[in-house]
Amino acid sequence: MAEAVPLEGGKTFMHMRYAYGFSGSGRFAMQAYLATAGASKVGFTTNGVRGAVERNAMRYYLAIDAYLDTMHLPPGQRVEKRANEWFSATERYPKQLREMDRSSYVAMKRQEYDRQQTAAVN
């Protein structure tokens, strides 16, 4: 959940709440992830499920920040700039958030955007 309140000087206060819930099969999938690909991942305060939630919440926050920071750009420049700004922001927390190099991430985001545009037309 995200809430925003305008402040003086063109600033905004944003409150974000993130919760993660899953069923029995989701719990099994999370345990499998944490025992394999996620075993070496760390959160900001802890590891395990809470660490995964912390990483995801931070990724969402940085995505919102990159989105808002690029609204002044012409629409054709926003996607590329957002991908690069988000990646740069995640690099401030490499231990928690690094998944791949910048060129791979930006290429993946370009492809994802292109797929979305194609799907919207069809």
Short précis:
This protein has 122 residues and is mainly α.
Structure description:
This protein has 5 helices and 2 strands; from the N terminus they run E-E-H-H-H-H-H. By secondary structure, it is mostly helical. It has one domain. It has a two-stranded antiparallel sheet with strand order 1-2. A hairpin with a 5-residue loop joins strand 1 and strand 2. It is globular, with a radius of gyration of 17 Å. The relative contact order is 0.09.
Determine the oligomeric state from the structure: single chain
Uncertain parts: none
Question: What class, by secondary structure content?
Answer: mainly alpha
Question: How many helices does DSSP assign?
Answer: 5
The amount of beta strand, in percent, is 5-15%
Rounded to the nearest angstrom, the distance between the terminal CA atoms is 31 Å
- Quickly count the domains: 1
Give the integer mean of the pLDDT values: 93
Instruction: Sum up the overall morphology in one term.
Output: globular
The run of helices and strands is EEHHHHH
Widest beta sheet: strand line-up: 1-2
Biggest sheet record: 2 strands, antiparallel
- Helical coverage, percent range: 55-70%
Q: Compute the gyration radius: what is it?
A: 17 Å
The overall strand count is: 2
Per-chain topology:
Blueprint: E1 2-6, E2 12-16, H1 24-35, H2 48-69, H3 75-90, H4 94-97, H5 102-121
Antiparallel strand pairs: 1-2
Helix pairs in contact: 2-3, 3-5
